[in-house]
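Here is a protein:
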Amino acid sequence: MRIWKRKGLHLCLCTILMCTMLITPSNTSTVIAAVPEKLLSENTLGSLFPLTTEIIHTGATYTWLTEGTHATDPAIISTDNSGAPDMSDGINGPDGNYSNNSTWDDNAVSTGTLIYDLQAVYKVSTVKVWADTATNSSMKKFEVLASIDGLTYNSVGVQENQNAANSGFASVALTIKPLVYARYVKVIMHKDTPVFNMRLGEVAVFGDALEQQALLSNNFLRASGPYNTSTPKLPTNATYQWVTEQPFVTQGDLITTDNESLNDGAGGIVDLIDGSSVEMTADTIVNSAWSSQGKFGTVIFNLNDMYQVGKIDVWTKADSSKYMDGYEVQVSTDGVNYTSLGYTANTNNRTANAMVNTISYGVSGRNAKFVKIIMHNANNSQQLTIGEIAIWGWKLYDNNPSQQNPMPEQVELRVDLKNYSTLYLDWSSYNHVINNTNKYAVYIENADFTTTTGLTPKTTLNTGWIGQVGKYVSYFALQPETTYYIAVTPFQASGVERKDVTTVKLTTPSVLGGEQVGDIFSINDAPFGSGNHYVNHGDPGEQNNLQSKLKLLREIGGVNKNRWSDHSNYTKKEYGKFGVNFHMFYHESSTVAADNTNGAWTFSTYNEPDNPSNFTTPTVAATSIMNNHNSMKAIDNRNLLVEPAIMGVDTGSLNWLDQLYNSDGQNGALVKTYFDVMDVHPYVKYSDTPVTGLDSGTPEKLISKIADLKGVMSSHGDAAKPIVFTELGWSTYTGGGGFLKLVDRTTQRNYLARAYMHAIAGGIKSVHWYGFQDFGETATQIEHNFGLIDWDAVPKPSYYGYYTMVRVLHDASYLGPVANLSNPYYGYKFWDENKNRYVTSLWDASWQTTSSTSHTATITTSDAGVTIVGIDGSHTYLAATTGSVNVPLTGAPIFIYSNHGVSVASVN
């Protein structure tokens, strides 16, 4: 069962600077040309839609979404209760029998969210919504998300309602560019908050038919079976290769048993595409080594052209000793920058004692030339046995046209933001063959434009560059809270550029973000090491180590910022290539403009000024902070000063903070204006009073630490100030005697996930994990063992925990703590609009890696079953029995995916 896939933001990206790399050009790429639209949503003809309207009878139906942050206003549902469904009856009010009303309440937030099921996949190009424009009734805007499987949605556009007041039930149209392939279309309609009501008249989806999906992965077609000679297959000549690099290294025997020279009855075809899905002979399968619990099998398919992925088949053995519990799919257009489509859990029973198929689906608008599949052998499975992998989908364009366009078509592109500074452009469906295009220019301006005449491109992607071949590029660094207009222009082989453009508009978020949970993810990483304890890698080892770190940061995908003191433009640009900004130390005003240009907009004067080793009096600190704030704001008011980074949230540090506020003699009335963001290092120390029943040093102590910090801030009238943690972590050292408890690598991973979730629940804007890499290899040295990766850049369990946490929570909205839980049991609830489902975390804070037993939570649910992703990388599907499932709880958090909210009935 698929549980989630990535939406708007491409997580693994190249930057424009990387596009100077040359690669062998592909003979494909481009956008689907415009096609005549047809009505897909089965709206009744004769009123809104003339009888001459071109239609495709899809059998489409819609349902109102009643779950999540955009659940439909109950009044809208209750007024859609007689005759034909109001949103597709072809009649547009004002009669209440043909329209739906929200609750009458001014200054209330109200949404109506419907999901159209078109019953099959179509090309979707336009969505229209009709809404009343009366003085007291208005729809402000609507959003559209599209899905192939109904499990994972992708945002494809937002349209503001610009109709004049009192112009009747007027339509608002969103043209989806590039158009997408979708079966399910989710439309979220937002009431204009100040008005009393939102009355909706009709929703319609337009597009065109789509051919049957076909095999893309070049599987051999046999006389019978799932891949028989009647199976549609495109001549992609696709190949695959096993991945042997970090972080998901393929277990070695999977590669050595993939022997195409064996007689598989297909003339020696490599095992994953030999067409043998259920056979179990050595000639047709690959096997990991025995005792490969928790190991990976990672394979990358090269499809040799751009496609929309439809379905993916992964055939593996399921029995008591062999079981793949799930896999992740990533897609790429250039073979360098991958976007996660999400995890799929294996729902097949282990008692099958046979080869079973675990199916997943592509994501609308996420095109692929390369498809990476990361298979996970269950933690209690001795061996991973794989029989066949098949990738299905649709071609995006004709790469062998009878003639070429005399002038290239405009480039339609998808624009995504990772954060305030990193922009991703994707025009992978653009048909460069029919348009005779071999070069592109990227324009990014602060004012709208219809022609590029007189403008200078931000970059030009020449023939053979990664961006030109992959039709995918990133740009770094945008400015926060700024509106941009973006266009990509094509050049014909003759050198002629099509200069007229239709721009895409976007506005970057604030520096701190906060619109989604994923804005919290940051790290501490000294690019080339730091401090007396750091062990240098030598020359050129240190530069090679930096590149290894950056690649592993890109694999995580959701890390937004790194905290470091070096104002070198080189380091900021290197991290910027991988979508990572910098939080800097403020040294002098002369560096700020350059720092801004390279993505740094938050600064700090101090690092632990209350630390006895470098103690600064609160009065002196207040003066320095004030001066730096005035200087920094004079350069650009969007710069944020983040202070004072005290060394803890305990009695001594909070007393220092209290004195800082009081240093103005006005209870902080002036001091609180000297800085924009509160910064603390809330390490959970041995000296802290532990949470009742838990060990000293457990992350649950953060709950009271956050409350204590907010109490001090509130007492000085500073309760509204945002909070960040620029350091927080646990070391896997073995020496003892330090300020932190000893934790093993598994416990470090568990604490990391729990700490981040407590911070999310506490409203913390950003948490910089300390640190990304171990400073050395001495087991007893505390500073040598804080990292998510070791000194050799090999991931530790905490790296995989961070990776999983980002995948699960990045696009989620926080809802609140799980009810009916008390210490030592904890959990939080989230909603993910793209997954269209709830995510509920649970764990037992009293459990340790030495615990011999685990407790069990009984979960009540109205779903047929729930899917669970463990912070340990495991995947589990649990079928419900009489409305409940039993979930084992340990210190390792689990994430439960459900269509409806779940509740904890009991824990034993």
